[in-house]
Amino acid sequence: MDFKNTTRNILFLSFLLSSMATFAQEIVPERCATDEYNKMLLEDYPNMMGSKAFEKQLSKQIQLNKVEQGAIQGATSRRMVYTIPVVVHVIHNGEAIGVGPNISDAQVLSQIQVLNEDFRRMIGTRGYNINLAGADVEVEFCLAQRTPDGCVTNGINRVDMSATSTSWSGPGGNTDTVLKPATIWDVSKYLNIWSVNFSSTSTLGFAQFPEGPATSDGVVVGYQYFGSDDDPNVTIPGDFNLGRTGTHEVGHYLGLYHTFQGGCAEVDGGDLCADTPAVASSSSNSNICNTGNDSCPAGMVDMVENYMDYSQDSCMNVFTNDQKARVVATLTSAANRPTTLTSNVCSPLASVNDDGSAQIESIAVADCGYSATASVRITNWGTNTLTSAVITYDEDGGASSNYNWSGSLNYGEFEVFNLPVIVSTPGNHTFNASVSSPNGNSDSRNCNNDTNATFSVNPSYAGTGQVHLTLNTDGFGGETTWTFKNSAGTTLYSGGPYLDNVTINESFEVGDDDCYTFTILDSAGDGICCGVFGNGSYELKANDNTVIASGGEFESSETTRISTITLKMNDYFTNNGVSIYPNPTEDVINIKLTNGNDLPDSYKIYNMLGQLVKEKQINNSSQLKVDASSLSNGIYFIKVIKEKASLSLPFIKK
Q1: pTM for the whole thing?
Q2: Which residues are catalytic?
Q3: How confident is the model at residue 576, as a pLDDT?
Q4: Enclosing domain of residue 525
Q5: Does 77 share its domain with 177?
Q6: Do 328 and 245 belong to one domain?
């Protein structure tokens, strides 16, 4: 008998029976986690939606709006259409735009289009219906055209968060504690929508009900369900591929409950909308649009077409009049539900001729070693076609370098490119970059010129000679194995499976200037720590007992890269005391070395615009004397290069 699997099955069955007793109506995998989120938030925000206090206030606002609407209908004017400004945070892992979580602009735009079709009951689209209870909610959505600091944007904020996490939780977890605080825009001016890679495959999205905390307000949608496959420039497979997850979650954000709230008994008033029939449970997540079903005895036919049910996307096309009344009351009374009446971020800024913006997309750091490559996005927000610009960059505010970009970008277009590789040092660093001289002119807007991002370089254990492993297995040691490989992928050492609850000690011989990979695996996919099956662990140490890595709480595997590469390149400039003289100079600049026998590889000279004006390979000591006579008077930088490292020194030609 497989005791572990049997134990798991018993635990799962107990959990399932408990869940069925508490949530009898929920018989399908969780699609929307908003109710779970609301239950958690109500503990600290007892007056937000989900409370009697909120519903009492909203009911008053609904009645007030009905009185005002009656007065409007008696006049010649029509009701106001509300427009909500939106920022979409595309959270990705450094993929190219259009790949995986880094969804395309077209996919984002298709989602905004779906929201407008659905909330406006737009004729000729999937959002139109002929249901007698169906309503034009008279709410529209616009992508923001201004950032919180007043700069121009297209309303799509792409953020590489892979250095922190490659997947994101449902309610609570790292989505609330890490992602939102790092990316959220002012919720009084923007509806924040995050497109993410969820950790759980069963969660499509969740939203925060009105009057909750401002620090986490907004909507979160799995990137696989964001936007519409109807758009010819977008491909999204499956039954939830038409953008209705976004519509559903924005409905929650605007004050709507699930139509199946409270079940047939409509406990606590159900969804508090009289024109949405009571239903026993959410509609199936299957590809069947189960119209004509009446799940509550002597009730009305289930409104499976309602956006606040769980039907497949192609089935949904209805908001009702009572749902509309809740949405309008929410917009007119709840905090942090912005419209263009209270927010100007959808109004375009005054146009300018030359405006380049820079943003760091990602920083790729070598698994072992010290090289880092920054990927930068340059965007043209000027009316003139952008054909050239200078990117100035540095690490930790040190000596800067210039990169001369050239291309052809019309207004709103962008290009992503890699800056030259830099050689860093172990530890945490900040990479800074800025754009200047668009088309050789002054930049008309400075608010979008500067960008920075942090990155980390792992330490090297050069000279350690050995790496030592201590492994404590859990109660199922037979599931644990490991490998230790060199940079060529050759397995040098391996171990497991083991007995239960034992301690294993191993030592691995290592050489200098290599990159080793230690991988620990668990065949059951639940790691070796921590829980009912034991508290296993592992630890890797260098010869001097420095801890390289430790752990045990993983799923199927965990990998550690171990570098023994020596930082020879930075040592070169430290040990050789590289300097230049005379400075200022009229005709010759000399490169001086403490150790004149260890020559650098080459030098390059740049002017103040970052343009390369001279370069030369260094093959003998006579080439350390640099002819500067042909240079015009001014300030220059000479970059001395050794292997992949360099040192830039300024000098004046007079």
Answers
A1: 0.75
A2: 249
A3: 60
A4: 466-563
A5: yes
A6: yes
